[in-house]
Please model this.
Amino acid sequence: MAEGFKSTGGARIGWINASWPLAELSVTPRSLVIRTWPLGTYAFTPERIIRLEPYGSIPVIYRGIRVVHSNPDYPSGIIFWCLRNPARLIERIRQVGFVPTAPPPTAPAKRGIPVRWSFIIALVVVWNALFILGGFLPGKPPPEKPGVLVLLALAVVLVASFAVERSPAFQRWVLRPGRSVGEIRPSLRLIQLTTGLLVVIFAIVFMVA
Model:
């Protein structure tokens, strides 16, 4: 049995892609962990992985291993992009002693987005209303600097993303029945990073202008 190892690469978690070298694969006989920045850490035991399979066919830019797992709190699509041959990487994982043992799923795959359409529509309406009230009107040039209402629109999205991730009560309102916040956590963290940076930048512009 070989020793555990680590490998640097990229990852796709759900719909969000983190390019090389923003992900790291770490393998021991009892754990397979994919760490990505800024999408978080995804850890598996052999009992949580159904199989590991090669994915993609273009060397360097589109080739990796797909983790077919049974953890309902993780997005179903988890791929580690690697520079080496995916089949050889899977073989090295097996040589370490990590062998998937999860049985094939018996329940049908979850379909559609986990978030209720009513929440998406409400958020879009609030976002557009604040931007329009802030002077961003169709067919007219935008304001020279962002106003308070534009900052408020960004803050609403930022606060909502944190609330969805951390508040069980808010999750019951936002998520469809039987769905988990873990399925959209990568998207939430990307939204938090993007809107957080925009809030800081726009606030600085607003104060110094």
Remarks:
- The two ends are 64 Å apart (CA to CA).
- The domain at 5-96 is CATH 2.30.29.30 (PH-domain like).
- The first strand starts at residue 5 and ends at 13.
- Helices lie at 86-96, 117-133, 148-166, 168-174, 185-208.
